[in-house]
Give the backbone structure.
Amino acid sequence: MNIDRSGEGKLVEVYPAAALRRWHLPPTGYKRSAGSGARQRLVDQFAKITSPWLALSSEGWEACQASDDAFDALLAALVALAKANDRCDSIPVEHQAAARVEGWIALPHRDSLTDLPRQSPPP
């Protein structure tokens, strides 16, 4: 079975650190228990930026502060939303064939975090 790994189908490959960098947030230092303080500051900053549109329960934010895996899952979901809303970089034509086989990391547009909710998914 051939699966399109380019992100143009149902699956999107994401890299949370790359998304953070694109969104002008610190992409390192928040992992594992050693990074708990940095993660709490990062999650607080992220919550402030997204507060006008992201409805996440207090339990959800607490989970993101407690676990880098939970925060990375939130980031991955938002990159998938960005991809669905055509808010990620396009694959250069010369790399499209290889991307379908080898995969391609979806990189959200710079500053797209603040306008993700204003986009509507394609039909």
